[in-house]
Amino acid sequence: MGRTDRASRVIAAPPATVYGALLDRDSLEVWLPPDGMRGRVERWDPRPGGGFRMVLTYLDPADSPGKTSDATDVVDVGFAALVPPERVVQRAVFEADDPSYAGTMTMIWHLTAAGEGTEVTVTATGVPPGISQADHEAGIASSLANLASYVEAAD
After folding, report:
1. Which parts of the sequence belong to the Activator of Hsp90 ATPase homologue 1/2-like C-terminal domain (predicted)?
2. What are phi and psi of 104, to 5 degrees?
3. Cα–Cα distance for residue pair 145/29, rounded to 1 Å
4. Fewest CB atoms within 10 A around its CB: which of 21, 37, 130, 134?
5. Domain with 82 in it: what CATH number?
6. How many domains in the chain?
7. What range defines the domain where residue 45 resides?
């Protein structure tokens, strides 16, 4: 079955606000790239069967070589399911020559009301073996921290 990578965080914003940030192009460019990266969305179609293409650029490529080029990771993400305001299911494929980054990774963003906020749990399956579990979970946690900062400042 392969491994499952997971991270979660409680965010001080209602589920509808968090869900909106998951499906807003400008928002994704701000919060989705983990620390040490910046992102640019090249294609955007926010509906089931649609998706987006994101170019993630390492701020210091010497520290973390990219999967697509020396300084970038390019990922095509499809929206497999959108269930407002509780779940977004994505299928992500990295553009890479190295077969250890090949395959389709499924990421499920599950949002649950938690008091005045939202618990966001991200579960990834089918993670390419070239991505270490520790690094991937740290990256997801970093994106969740960015998401919290983004929506909490707007709320």
Report:
1. 12-152
2. -110, 120
3. 14
4. 134
5. 3.30.530.20
6. 1
7. 4-154
